[in-house]
């Protein structure tokens, strides 16, 4: 898969608002399907479908906790996606470094 195809896939995965909200929630802590469903106000089935897309893209990882499966963000993959987005948007290396520092602090761009 070319870099352009990988970048296009990244944006396709994040083109659904519920998935973006899931990523934001899972950056903070791991959650199970039912907790995500309650928080997002959508069905558990819809959450499962979105998680499958995020899992297939390598952005979330499942963790078994007894009878429950919790999902957490794959921070390494998220970092690569951030870098790809910055490159696509034409950020210079200095801009990219500044953006990375803001992102590490949790500030919005």
From TrEMBL:
User: Which Pfam families does this one have?
Assistant: HTH_5
Task: List, alphabetically, the InterPro entries matched.
Answer: ArsR-like_HTH (IPR011991), HTH_ArsR_DNA-bd_dom (IPR001845), HTH_MetalResp_TranReg (IPR051081), WH-like_DNA-bd_sf (IPR036388), WH_DNA-bd_sf (IPR036390)
Could you confirm whether the keyword Translocase appears in this record?
Answer: no
Q: Which residues form the HTH arsR-type domain?
A: 1-93
Keywords of the record, alphabetical order, are: DNA-binding, Transcription, Transcription regulation
GO terms for molecular function, please? DNA binding; DNA-binding transcription factor activity
Q: Which SUPFAM superfamilies does the record match to this protein? A: Winged helix' DNA-binding domain
Matches recorded under PROSITE patterns: HTH_ARSR_2
Looking at the keywords, is Disulfide bond present?
no
The name this protein goes by in its record: Transcriptional regulator, ArsR family
Q: List the top taxonomic levels of the source.
A: Bacteria, Pseudomonadati, Chlorobiota, Chlorobiia, Chlorobiales
